[in-house]
Amino acid sequence: MVQSFIQAQRPDTLLIVDDNEINREILEHIFSSFYPTEQAENGRVGLDKILSRPENYCAILLDVVMPEMDGIQVLHRLKAEGLMEKIPVFLITGEASDAVMNEAYRLGVMDVISKPVVPYIVQRRVNSVVELFRARKILGNKVEQQQSELLKQAQKIIRLNEGMIESLATAIEFRSGESGEHVRRIHDITRHLLRHTDLGEGLTEVDIEHIALASIMHDVGKIAIPDAILNKPGRLTPEEFEIIKTHTTKGAELLEKIPQLREHESYRYAYDIARHHHERWDGRGYPDGLKGDEISIWAQIVALADVYDALVSKRCYKTAFARQEALDMIRDNKCGVFNPRLLDRFFAEEEKLARLYPRRSEEN
Is 222 a catalytic residue? Predict the structure, then answer.
């Protein structure tokens, strides 16, 4: 199927460029049983034909001495247009001096054939090269098709891996009594702040996508927390809170034990976010007591996104706060201490982020 398509699209016309009509007719007679042929009476006409439809020609037979534009000038233009590698050109000339031959070969002609031509010799030399170019084109198309198919397979694997990551994160959120929308909003908030503020300075779009994907695994360690503590509706005891805090280290350990994930570009961000999204700008967070810029900007963003989403969403242990009340709590450091620069960018973009909560933004 593919081969027949390629054959249907392959160039098959031989172009004869010579100012001598008799020479053109002789060459057409030699090759008319092999290819459709076209003629051009000088280099200028021949070049115009080639440039207007380069995909039509399987070979060019080119004289050297012609009015308007000689054969060497035509070769220079074809070389500049990148066509010498795509269309085999044969110089057919009665002036095969060393200078002409050297220049012709330097420019990329396949062969220099002296006049008067010997039919069976010129046939063999031209036909062999044309078939070689056709075979190379077919092979090139097959390789391109195979590369395209491999790329599609790789993209499917990437989507499958990302889907599995999202499914794992969503399952953990359901276990803790939250909807899968929580991880999706954390993903979207993280991506928005990195993409639309200078917080993402120095990061590529690919980096940002990997960080956003990593953000949905921030609470993966909650899988190791007992249900009685994870879903407790009332205030946690100090002992229970210490157990809850271990979800950061357990999450990092879990991610570290998944070989397939360690090969994913998101892994280093996911490990860092899972372990450090409860660190605080003032150094009073956990588990490592990191302070200030010791905390990566992506872990800082996920921490703030997590707090914001928790405040404006209903949880098993609380009702949702009104939007303005939630913002006041964040501004007054009632839910942790955050990087002032991060807060500045967050408040500047919060009205857009609130659109992720359409019903709540309407109510408040």
Answer: yes
